[in-house]
Amino acid sequence: MKKICIISADPNFWGGVSLYTWNVINSLKRLTDYELLWIYRGDKTRIYKKNQVTFVELGSSGQYPLNEILFNFKVKKFLEKNHFDVINSHAIWGFWMAFYKRKNKQEIIHTYHGSTYHFFKSHFKRQDLFKKLESYLSMILGFVMEKPPWKRADKIICVSEHVKRELTGLYGGRKNISIISASIDLKKFKLRNKNISKKKVNLNKNRWYGLYVGRGGFWTKGLDRVVKISEEIYKKDENYRLLIVGADKDKVKYLINRKFAISLPPQSRDVLPYYYNSSDIFFNLSRYEGGNPTFSTGEAMASGCLVVCSKSSEQEIIENGENGLILENFDEKDAKKIIDLLKNKRKRERIIKNSTKTIKNFLLKNRGENTLVH
Q1: Could you count the other beta carbons within 10 Å of the beta carbon of residue 364?
Q2: What distance in Å separates the CA atoms of residue 236 and residue 230, rounded to the nearest whole number?
Q3: What is the mean pLDDT of the chain?
């Protein structure tokens, strides 16, 4: 039996990295000769088993980035005491490789979900001087923490071509790099009747809706851009509403206190599909993303939303006017583009049809085998 260790995000937090990891694990579960263990940073140290996976939570207190550095050293210590045939770390949780001595016949794989350096570089456009300084220091730290996996792992996985380009630009070229993008569960996220879906989540069937989904990093995720363009849409049609799912209401209250904005708490994976199905537009106006597509973008495409992306989100699978819209200004002119497209039934249906066809290439299938077994 092959023993596999995955070092990733909190499995109980439904963010992009954890969803990606769950997809890998759920794919591997179909096989019978693998033992799976998932290590993540938490508030306390404990080991428990659930759904045929052993979870190891390593308590690492303190503020970022000290808690992440401490976690990486705890991971190193754990790996030294236990043997695994394959180790797959994710994101910044591969820094332990800088100090780890590889064991005999052990394969190490690292998955980059983005470039921390470029993520924080995007924050330089913020007006707050303290935020700019904080971002600069975080860029340096990110560069240091993400370099060891690039140099020491046997195999590198990037979730998109642009992440590969960013990392190659930072650390130079290397062999054995694979692009494995997010995969979408097309059994859960699919076309459904809009009015039935609205009834399911108690939305007004006579209104039309834009949708934003995101739990954290609302500046990076471009929530301000979504509110800005939604305000322009609302000026043209007061029957429009913006659904904001998952954002911390206390943190973004000043931003979303608008007549057209409806703030909703994070939704379960069983309920979330109905919000996609109820919505006419899905907004991904991020200033930086790693995935191509991001999970939310892919889920929206599979659900029949008109996907509207920012150029800076670099959703490489989106072709402007073919399977979605790509915007840059988020102003009155861009709002008119959206409204005009929605009114043009033939063009709108063609784009959505192309969108659902495109996302079928990202079916949740054999993801684990492609990632960890070769």
Answers
A1: 17
A2: 10
A3: 93
Distance of CA 84 to the CA centre of its chain: 27
Q: Which residues contact 191 (CB under 8 A, 6 or more apart)?
A: 277, 302, 303, 304, 356
Instruction: Output the CATH code of domain 2-180.
Output: 3.40.50.2000
Preceding peptide of 293 cis, ω within 30°: yes
Fold designation for 194-362:
Rossmann fold (3.40.50)
Dist CA 313 CA 300 (whole Å):
15
Q: 36 — phi, psi (to 5°)?
A: -110, 135
SS3 state of residue 67: helix
The first and second tokens of residue 269, run together, are 């994976």
Terminal Cα distance for the chain, rounded: 15
Q: Which residues contact 59 (CB under 8 A, 6 or more apart)?
A: 42, 43, 44, 45
| Close Cβ partners of 171 (under 8 Å, ≥ 6 residues apart) | 147, 150, 151
pLDDT of residue 124 exceeding 90: no
Residue 361's Cβ-count burial label (10 Å; 0-12, 13-18, 19+) is exposed
Could you tell me where the beta strands, DSSP code E, fall in the chain?
2-7, 34-42, 46-50, 53-59, 86-90, 107-112, 155-158, 177-179, 208-213, 240-245, 261-264, 281-284, 306-310, 325-327
pLDDT tier for residue 373 given thresholds of 50, 70 and 90: low
What pLDDT digit, counting tens, does each position of 309-358 carry?
999 999 999 999 999 999 999 999 999 999 999 999 999 999 999 999 99
How far does CA 58 lie from the centroid of its chain? 23
Query: Over the stretch 48-84, which tens digit does the pLDDT of each residue have?
Result: 999 889 999 999 988 888 999 999 999 999 999 999 9
What secondary structure letter does DSSP report for 7?
A: E
**pLDDT score of 31 more than 80:** no
Q: What is the pLDDT of residues 169-184, one digit of tens each?
A: 999 999 999 999 999 9
* pTM given for the model: 0.93
